[in-house]
Specification:
With about 475 residues, this protein is of the alpha/beta class. About 50% of the residues lie in helices and about 10% in strands. Helix 5 links the parallel strand 1 and strand 2.
Length: about 475
């Protein structure tokens, strides 16, 4: 069932939406609720049935998009039936409001068609909510019998890990089958045989491969931040989903949302927090803006090329391999602002604020941020975004992965021309700057939205006008 869960939900939602649309048609045009004139009713019904068949497919697709945007097709193992009904209600309200706005008639703002939407909304909520409630009950029935469970391992051979194991073993409806413990220390002397570690944290990649584990459940013994960061860094890079027991400080200050497994508060560490709708809209904005900017780059390139060539020998463009989304490398484009072959003697080093290798024209290009303009072609090609963490070279990424907490998390989104770290922190001059800017990048990834992107673009524009570095 777990493999086909979303397919089943898509089908049942489509059937529920179709039935709701048909019931609305019947109540609106074949009952006496809206008109007492049989002749008028027959005429209206003959036209409405054609509209019903024409609108059926678009409406099914519309509701799929609305439900997906509200997380109703996320594959959550731990799920509350009440919370799911609340999400269905919210999605139906949003969808009906969109339909009302799309069909709004200023001459008849409270027409019978709009009133019929209230019936449609009630039918959608009742039918979709009922089918999903029944589906979750069937799912729970199979889980009690050990069918459809997700294999998981617990990191932490301690009291919290023991409590978690006992609850999941006693209540399989949560959807987990624990295949073993992983820890760097021995289990307590009084631990049961089931709690004996099957390996150390360094063995995680091989354990996951051999046991075909789908989930990692982290049960920290105490607030060891460094150890927690190491575990999260390692876990995020693996092909599994990760949850950890939240500490009380996180819950009290409201930093995280949690799900409860018989009293234990859990956070899922998501590899991708962005909703499908935001991904689509963000990419659409990237394409539109970068297309306009690429046209501008083509216009000014001949002038800048002449200045660059007159100032120093070498090519007009500087091409460099950078690490992008999911650690894939791409060629990033810039106007050359340094002397040709600048790293021939120094090797791969950081560019400094007043780097002596920068040419006179290059200094102007950097001060005006014109050297970055060719990167709009990278955005148009889908290798970068307008907003995101700045891409780094492979040599630096390999180093920072071991020295900067959660640095790996920057690689789950497209890198950007500008970002939250660029407008909130100064130019990189040390590892401390990289650590600080990574915190800003993680904040951006965890709060990514179109409004935040627009804010960053606006603040970037202001910094450029003021002549400040980014």
């Amino acid at each position: 069932m777990k493999r086909y869960q979303n397919i089943i939900l898509l089908i049942t939602d489509a059937l529920s939406g179709t039935l709701a649309l048909y019931l609305t048609y019947v109540l609106r045009f074949e009952s006496a609720l809206f008109t007492a004139d049989p002749t008028t009713q027959v005429v209206q019904a003959s036209g409405a049935i054609a509209v019903f068949w024409w609108a059926l497919t678009p409406m099914v697709l519309f509701w799929w998009v609305v439900f997906a945007a509200n997380g109703l097709y996320n594959r959550n193992v731990v799920i509350s039936r009440f919370d799911e009904l609340a999400k269905v209600f919210k999605s139906v309200v949003i969808g009906v409001v969109i339909i009302y706005i799309a069909t709004f008639d200023r001459t008849q703002p409270v027409a019978l068609t709009q009133i019929g939407l209230l019936l449609y909304a009630a039918e959608m909520f009742i039918l979709v909510g009922t089918t999903r409630f029944l589906f979750r009950n069937v799912q729970r029935y199979f889980r009690w019998r050990g069918i459809g469970l997700e294999d998981a391992i617990i990191i932490g051979c301690n009291e919290v890990g023991r409590q978690l194991f006992e609850q999941l073993d006693r209540y399989p409806v949560w959807g987990f089958r624990i295949v073993g413990f992983v820890d760097d220390v021995f289990a307590p002397a009084n631990a049961s045989e089931n709690m004996r570690p099957i390996g150390r944290t360094a063995d995680l990649p091989q354990i996951i491969k051999d046991a075909k584990v789908r989930w990692i459940l982290i049960a920290p013994a105490e607030a060891d931040n460094r150890k927690m960061m190491e575990l999260l860094d390692l876990s995020i890079s693996l092909p599994v989903r990760v949850m950890l027991v939240a500490d009380y400080y996180q819950m009290v200050v409201g930093l995280v949302g949690t799900v409860q497994i018989h009293g234990l508060p859990f956070i899922e560490v998501s590899r991708r927090l962005i909703s499908p709708l935001v991904i689509i809209l963000k990419r659409a904005m990237d394409i539109v803006v970068s297309a306009v900017m690429c046209a501008m780059v083509l216009i000014i390139t001949p002038l800048l090329a002449a200045l660059i060539k007159l100032d120093s020998r070498g090519p007009v463009f500087y091409l460099q391999r950078r690490v992008g989304k999911q650690s894939r490398e791409f060629t990033m484009y810039k106007y050359r602002s340094m002397v040709h072959d600048a790293e021939r003697r120094t090797g791969v080093v950081w560019a400094q604020k007043n780097d002596p290798r920068i040419t006179r024209v290059g200094r102007f290009l950097r001060r005006a941020h014109l050297d970055e303009l060719p990167q709009f072609f990278n955005v148009l090609l889908g290798q970068m975004s307008l907003v995101g963490p700045r891409p780094e070279r492979r040599e630096f990424v390999s180093e920072f992965r071991h020295k900067v907490p959660l640095y790996e998390r920057r690689l789950i989104v497209r890198p950007g021309i500008t970002g939250w770290a660029q407008i909130r922190h100064k130019y990189d001059e040390s590892l401390r700057d990289v650590i600080e800017k990574t915190r800003y990048d993680i904040f951006y990834i965890d709060h990514i939205s179109l409004s935040l992107d627009l804010k960053i673009l606006f603040l970037t524009f202001l910094k450029i006008l003021r002549g400040e570095g980014i």
